[in-house]
Design brief:
It is built from twelve helices and twelve strands. With 292 residues, the chain is of the alpha/beta class. It has a single domain, classed as P-loop containing nucleotide triphosphate hydrolases (Rossmann fold), CATH 3.40.50.300. The longest helix has 18 residues. It is globular and about 55 Å long. It starts with 10 loop residues before the first strand and ends with a helix.
Length: 292
């Protein structure tokens, strides 16, 4: 990108804004490291409204021999939402991967609270986390089966159910809720718009009736009107059904507007944490991640 030599050059943050000069990814990482030197457990505890429903404590995790997360801690209450933002390579998606069982855990723990108290789920497989702990992962990539009908895609979401009829019953509940999908139930998923595909991906995760939704980049690749639709769906799931939502969102402004709590990750560590609306007002967060 050519850099304007104008004296009125405007420098803006990450992923947002019309620019004359942009901060490079390297500069964002370097400057983000100056946001803070860690977040106290007291601060983390004060951000949640009730006892932790899902809790990560001092987690060191990564892939193979590479450690990405360093002593990472996260707490969220039932029915709350949390958005992870930060520069590229900060470890945001690795947090979701670790919760769901896609990474190697070097140390630390992950737990959820159920009717029997706190359950350690650190070493459960992804299937066990979905079936036993009620945690569902919604991928950032287009993961629908294009040759299958919308209805068949939903049935696939119930692959862990003991009886196929249970998945079909859950699919009917989803069709009753989302007319947009019901109208296309017998059509192949490849004919869906981008927003409809994202709705199908979310709905397929709901077939197992999870309590926790891990949502990776819900707005990626979508037109603005579909982004609004997706966030309205997530808001409805949180407010009306009490789902706990942990998301990674490249559109930091949209993610923080939605979430109760915001975490800023830098180089695999928690650099800053606050209420979503508080981070929106933080000038350094704004400069680096919100476009102003």
């Amino acid at each position: 990108m050519a850099v304007s030599e104008s004296k009125n050059k405007k420098t803006v943050g990450y992923h947002q804004g019309e620019v004359n000069t942009v901060i490079s990814v390297e500069d964002v990482n370097r400057q983000a490291q100056q946001l803070g030197s860690g977040v106290s457990e007291e601060t983390i505890n004060n951000l949640i409204k009730d006892e932790p429903f899902l809790k990560i404590e001092n987690l060191r995790a990564g892939y193979g021999k590479m450690e990405i997360l360093h002593d990472f801690t996260l707490k969220i209450s039932k029915g709350e939402s949390l958005c992870l933002i930060g520069p590229n390579g900060a470890g945001k998606s690795t947090v979701l991967h670790s919760i769901f069982g896609f990474t190697k855990i070097f140390s630390g723990s992950i737990s959820v609270r159920n009717e029997n108290g706190e359950q350690n789920i650190t070493n459960l497989t992804p299937s066990e986390k979905l079936k036993e702990a009620g945690i569902a992962y919604i991928l950032q990539d287009n993961s629908v089966f294009p040759g299958m009908t919308v209805e068949e895609n939903l049935w696939m979401g119930g692959y862990l159910k003991e009886k196929p009829e249970e998945a079909k019953e859950a699919a009917e509940e989803i069709f009753a809720k989302y007319e947009r999908l019901a109208n296309r139930r017998h059509q192949p998923a490849r004919v869906l718009s981008g927003g409809e595909r994202r709705l199908l991906e979310i709905s397929r995760a709901l077939v197992m009736k999870p309590q926790v939704l891990l949502v990776d980049e819900p707005s990626i690749g979508l037109e603005p009107r579909f982004i609004e639709m997706v966030f309205e769906i997530l808001y409805d799931l949180q407010e009306k059904e009490g789902k706990t939502i942990i998301m990674v969102e490249q559109n930091a402004k949209k993610g923080l507007e939605f979430a109760d709590i915001g975490y800023v990750l830098v180089a695999g560590e928690l650099a800053l944490a606050g209420k979503g609306n508080e981070l929106l007002e933080n000038p350094e967060v704004g400069r680096l991640f919100l476009g102003g």
